[in-house]
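Subject: sequence -> structure tokens, single chain

Hey, anyone have a minute? Need the predicted structure for the following. Not urgent.
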Amino acid sequence: MKDFRYHVVSLVAVFLALAVGVVLGSGPMRDAFTGSLAEQVDELETDLAQAEADVVAAEAQTSTARQYADESAPAMLSGALLGTSVATVQVSQADAQAQAGVRDRLVQAGATVNAEVVVEPIWTDPSQTAFRSSLASTIAPNVVGVDDSTSAPTVLAHALAQALMPGVYPAGFDESALSDTDFPDAENAPDRSALLLDLLTEAGLVSGVTTDAVSAFAVVAGPGAEDDATRAEDSGIMAALATTLAQYTRGVVVASGVDAAGDVPSAVLNSPDASATVATVVEGTEYYGQISVPLALADAQAGAVGHFGPGEGRTLVPSRAG
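Reply:
Had a minute. Here:
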């Protein structure tokens, strides 16, 4: 049997706990606790009200800024690309909304968008390397400027350029090179281009709509793969594609979203050949940056290839915006 003192101690402890509860729950102690809690609630409610006001102010400021951009864009863009026929080329999982925004600003600058092309994932899919090599071998006889030693990605890049630019040849070649193709007559250039585009489309490498020849390219780059290594590798291939396109025209610009490691603009900047011939606009697919894309393209056509947007090694906006 437990000692009677044990029960006495237990009872005393219970009564002490009740007494402490009564003291804390009433009188000055209660006021101290509840008063402090009420003050905290008041402070939180004030902070919440301020945060809500800040959101409203930010939304109003954004609306005003967008209105300003829309109303000032016509003056900045007017005639910048007058007479230029452009192809938008979506790469690295660029979405349709980004492409549409860039396209609208190109048109506002006076350009005619004659082609809207999507480079499909199969272009860089490692599991499709053998398929691409086979296709390149099939296409090569009708692609000017390549031979048996040319890599498959380069053959395909030249094929896309020549598919969209009938009668235009890479540096060092002219229509005399057509004698080795199935279309030896220069007047049949549109037929050769149509064949190349059909082969690329049927193979699933590209999709989209083409209505006429183009003279410049706006490459719209998406975020790419989630894996850093894969994104960097794919971006290198896309930068090489853009560099090949630049062998046919001085007008090539890459527009991307928010700056990210291993993205297409980074791959362009990391390549001496690419950075010297391909303009880039980081955040060029964002609302404000879309205005810079036509200006950067116009500068590139004039021989001033630049790299624009926030970040080291770039200018925020093209000179034509000033």
